[in-house]
Inverse folding.
């Protein structure tokens, strides 16, 4: 799921209990933090600076 839609990730996680992996359009540390804070189990990115 695109990592920049935190509200949707949180909703899916809360309603289904399914672990969501956020990936795509992750550009900053804040994007990673927001994804995790909103229910992402993991975050993927090709941006090596964020690994």
């Amino acid at each position: 799921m695109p990592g920049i839609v935190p509200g949707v990730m949180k909703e899916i996680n809360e309603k289904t209990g399914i672990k969501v992996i956020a990936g795509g359009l992750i550009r900053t540390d804040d994007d990673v933090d927001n994804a995790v804070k909103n229910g992402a189990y993991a975050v993927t990115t090709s941006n090596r600076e964020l690994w």
